[in-house]
Amino acid sequence: MAVADQPTDDEAPSASLNHRIRTDITEKIVSGIWPPGHRIPFEHVLTEQYGCSRMTVNKALSELVRAGLIERRRRSGSFVRHPQSQAAILEIHDIKTEVQALGLPYHYDLTERLLRGADAADYDSFEVETDTPLLQMTCVHFAGERPYCLEERLINLATVPEAETIDFADTAPGAWLIAQVPWSAAEHKIRAASADRATAKALDIAKGAACLIVERRTWSSGKVITKVRLTYATEGHTLVARFAPSGE
Amino acid sequence: MAVADQPTDDEAPSASLNHRIRTDITEKIVSGIWPPGHRIPFEHVLTEQYGCSRMTVNKALSELVRAGLIERRRRSGSFVRHPQSQAAILEIHDIKTEVQALGLPYHYDLTERLLRGADAADYDSFEVETDTPLLQMTCVHFAGERPYCLEERLINLATVPEAETIDFADTAPGAWLIAQVPWSAAEHKIRAASADRATAKALDIAKGAACLIVERRTWSSGKVITKVRLTYATEGHTLVARFAPSGE
DNA sequence: CAGTGGTCTAGACCACGTA
DNA sequence: ACGTGGTCTAGACCACTGT
Q1: What mean pLDDT, rounded, does chain A reach?
Q2: What's the CATH class of domain B17-80?
Q3: Which of B86, B208, B240 sits opposite A92 (nearest CB)?
């Protein structure tokens, strides 16, 4: 096969060929040289340009599809995608890690630990049968001496029976669950709300103060493992989400 | 090559082989059969089990690495990863789409449109030189007759000079920018805050009411294109983020 | 040193959709 | 019908690293 000139001869010298192809094309797209809808070269053309086999080109383009940068249609070719709904990666950290990242000492208090059966209200939000054994807990996470976050958690003991035997006075339930249970899906709902009387008392803030609430449900093998509501006291508390289209 | 028994003979009949291998392994991991740290079979073993070439097995395992489910070490093998920080996909929709999804009529008012040069305060948050031309806009998005969201936006005219010529009375700046500019990175900060006097007036809510604030900065080719602060009036407004480790 | 994964090749057959 | 991408093969060489 004839080895044509390499498109980028002044680029980083190393890295794999398929990675080179990917970054070359990514650069063309994010810089706007290839606008949305533009047809990118056929596989056999890239094969010649880079002097490599079709498999290598295909791997590079397949990963661009995964990253959402291009779409491919048989018999038509590959095209730069029109930007759609923006999607961002939201990192949900362990609360202990969060607090320590602020340079503050961390501790937490378990204020409630209750074993009960599921009722009708749980069915809606938790997707469990009535009377399924649940472990209900409330705890407050501290940053230094100030309350940082109120955690209200339900654990489905039908899926995680070991949780009943754990003394969560020492181990935070979130950290224990992450280490213990393989989870396959999670849903987060993020909203703002004014602190009600009980929340204000627990977090030692004024009633009516704005709070950031994160509600998370976690599934494993199609069953809900746990549901947690995290209420952040600090008005300054911020979630950060980042996005880069190529995933790099 | 000897074709050994297929591990899953009661599964979905179709799909590609590498997809089958991937889902088989994913199932083992998320179900807990293979706990974190467990070594998954070597490539040559899977090659025999599935009666396929090493390339196919390798592709399946490579995608599991991408998905963050496993990690691979030369000479050691491939291992189920210990779950780390949770990461969720946060979808950021166009506001018009958001409102219409609620079944409410959408419109918006442009209440400010100001051409000015960057000052020192912009430098911190916007990463632009002093006197860079900026377009500053404020608008209110309505759901039905109620204010839904307050948008305060800055556009860097050095990177998007065409924006100066657009009449944003008809086209919302967010929608125009997404269609116009290829963006390569975005950062979102999400927090709760009490409405100040101006915000409360713009959104027709009580001063001090809890609001959800999303601040977004968007880059293209290393330069900031736009910075926007979205303040949601509705206490009930919720962002939803989902996660599935295998990306499926 | 031996065995693992990382990458690549030069083919091949097939599914699919546009012309 | 034809050319595209989708998938797969049966090898190969190399880098790395644990024993």
Answers
A1: 85
A2: mainly alpha
A3: B86
